[in-house]
Amino acid sequence: MISKKVILTGNFGVGKTSLFNRFVYDRFSDKYLTTIGVKVNKKVVQIDDHEISILLWDIAGEITQDKVPVSYFLGAAGIIYVFDLSRPLTFKNMDKDIDYLKQLLPNSSIKIVGNKKDLVEPSELTSIVDELTLKCNITTSAKTGENVEELFKDLAREFI
């Protein structure tokens, strides 16, 4: 079995914990509870003939914050950078954040994820994604579960 550490990071309130809970437990709550520190769990996914154990770290807050120790990021094979499609402020500094992550973890796979797809109209979604300076790999909705499993399976495929 392949075992890989994956971190969920991004601004406050973008739905990192909701994606974590939808993927690991297949549940969603509208109740907002801020993550303090880090929450860790694992889930095994099957990709063809391979079992991949994803050790998922849900990291509180923003990546450049002094309150988030660099050690949380170390050893990560995958990074899921989450922004909120309904709040443009959450992707304004995305370029700088991604550059920092690439310097910190140069050999890690990075997925840029627009979450809360259920809160924007399809026509808005297209214009938001087109205006991003970095390529959004996938849009998700932790609330409905849309594309959540696909996100993690796509990342797991890169580990094989």
Please provide the ordered H/E string of secondary-structure elements: EHEEEHEHEH
Please mark out the parts with pLDDT under 50 across 5 or more consecutive residues, or reply none: none
State the domain count: 1
Whole-angstrom Rg: 15 Å
Largest sheet: 6 strands, mixed
The share of residues in helices is 25-40%
Assigned CATH architecture: 3-Layer(aba) Sandwich
What characteristic shape results from the CA principal axes? globular
Number of strands: 6
- What percent strand? 25-35%
What does this protein look like?
- With 160 residues, the protein is an alpha/beta fold.
- Helices cover 27% and strands 28% of the residues.
- The protein is built from four helices and six strands; from the N terminus they run E-H-E-E-E-H-E-H-E-H.
- It has helices spanning 16-25, 94-104, 122-131, 148-159; strands spanning 2-10, 38-47, 50-59, 78-84, 109-115, 138-139.
- It has a six-stranded mixed β-sheet, sandwiched between helices.
- Helix 2 (94-104) links the parallel strand 4 (78-84) and strand 5.
- The mean pLDDT is 90.
